TrEMBL record:
Keywords per UniProt: ATP-binding, Nucleotide-binding, Transport
InterPro entries, A to Z: AAA+_ATPase, ABC_transp_ATP-bind, ABC_transporter-like_ATP-bd, ABC_transporter-like_CS, Oligopep_ABC_C, P-loop_NTPase
NCBIfam families: oligo_HPY, PRK11308.1
The keyword Nucleus is assigned to this record: no
Lineage summary: Bacteria, Pseudomonadati, Pseudomonadota, Alphaproteobacteria, Rhodobacterales
ABC transporter domain location: 5-255
Entries under PROSITE patterns matching the protein: ABC_TRANSPORTER_1 (PS00211), ABC_TRANSPORTER_2 (PS50893)
The name this protein goes by in its record: Oligopeptide ABC transporter ATP-binding protein
Annotated segments matching region Disordered: 256-284
Source species, domain of life: Bacteria
GO biological process: peptide transport; transmembrane transport
Membrane topology note: Peripheral membrane protein
Keyword Transcription regulation set for record: no
Length: 369
């Protein structure tokens, strides 16, 4: 399979504090991440708040420039792009923000918000064709044509997130990055947006990168998962393999923390003690050793080298081969009736609508020289 997006040893550090006489601290938000996203797949990045996953998403999108490393989209270096090349990347890579209200200009109507990318990336469209495309996009995300004349404050949170998705789709992208796109929504509305994103990815052939901490959402719609801790990827593999047989102790603890009302033995499950260390002062060796029940002197001194097996499952842990055989309660492979009902409840709201991808303008030969 062809990789559409690659991150090669990406780092993003921030300097904080300092002042006239103080000494600035270096926050290692992303500290050496390498990823390869296959065209057409849904790839998830999960972890606790503060692990660096949102910063990584913005670096992949070039909303932040990396301190070190390189991001490549379909053979083009995102980190060094400018001019027409950067404009083409912006058309093909779109971002869905966590807070739908703050990402939409309150002074613009929904029609203007969705039509603006069309004006920039498809200037050949007439005003009539542009209005028709906006209506198609609204229908695709489960909204009505007349909503184009309203303002963002007139909509609910779920509707505003649909507007943000429609705006992201307007340029005809090949890849969409969603930074926790449902975490700010009610549970019932989350199901609507999850199903919408899943349907769009399937029907339009989109590549989706989802940043999330809700593992139930990830289990429902992703193909592969990367687990992030303190700026590093500690485990990566297919969704089924990671949920059925997690190898890293951090991943196992995350899965054990998922609420399950049917689990009567929950009290006996291991828990993560303490808090994640500050990225301004990461511990030596394995970053997780301060909270890991399996930590040894080697873990406290030596940074684990990512170990990838023949099935493509990567684990950054010195002792994962011993830990993986330890008994644990497996994650339920079949969703409960209540969970399935929640995810299927609102699917009809987004079914039946069709959208035609916007034809991308051919580059001028003079500009290619």
């Amino acid at each position: 399979m062809t990789a559409i997006l690659e991150a090669r040893d990406v780092k993003k550090h921030f300097r904080i504090g300092g002042g006239l006489f103080g000494k600035a601290a270096l926050v290692r938000a992303v500290d050496g991440v390498s990823l390869s996203i296959t065209s057409g797949e849904t790839f998830a990045i999960v972890g606790e708040s503060g692990c660096g996953k949102s910063t990584l998403a913005r670096v992949l999108m070039r909303l932040l420039d990396p301190t070190e490393g390189e991001v490549v989209f379909d053979g083009t270096a995102v980190t060094h792009a400018s001019g027409r090349t950067l404009a083409d990347l912006r058309r093909n890579m779109q971002f869905i923000f966590q807070d739908p209200f703050s990402s939409l200009n309150p002074r613009m109507t929904v029609g203007k918000l969705i039509g603006e990318p069309l004006e920039i990336h498809a200037p050949q469209l007439s005003a009539k064709d542009r209005h028709a495309k906006v209506a198609d996009l609204l229908a695709q995300v489960g909204l009505r044509r007349e909503h184009a004349g309203r303002y963002p404050h007139e909509f609910s949170g779920g509707q505003r997130q649909r507007i943000g998705i429609a705006r992201a789709l307007a340029s005809g992208p090949r890849l969409i990055i969603g930074d926790e796109p449902v975490s700010a929504l009610d549970v019932s509305v989350q199901a609507q947006v999850i199903n919408l994103l899943s349907d769009l990815g399937r029907d339009l052939g989109l590549t989706l990168i989802l940043i999330a901490h809700d593992l139930a959402v990830i289990r429902h719609m992703s193909d592969r998962v990367a687990v992030m801790y303190l700026g590093k990827i500690v485990e990566q593999g297919t969704t089924d393999a990671l949920f059925e047989a997690p190898r890293h102790p951090y991943t196992r603890a995350l899965l054990d923390a998922i609420p399950d009302p049917d689990d009567r033995n929950r009290a006996g499950r291991p828990q993560i003690d303490g808090e994640m260390p500050s990225p301004a002062a990461p511990p030596p060796g394995c970053a997780f050793h301060t909270r890991c029940a399996h930590a040894t002197d080697r873990c406290r001194k030596v940074v684990p080298v990512p170990d990838e097996t023949s099935d493509g499952h990567m684990t950054a842990c010195h002792h994962w081969r011993d830990i993986v055989d330890a008994p644990r309660q497996p994650f339920p492979l079949n969703r409960s009736a209540a969970t399935k009902a929640r995810l299927d409840l609102y699917r009809k709201a987004t079914e039946g609508a069709k959208i035609t991808q916007i034809a991308q303008p051919k580059p001028d030969r003079e500009e290619m020289r």
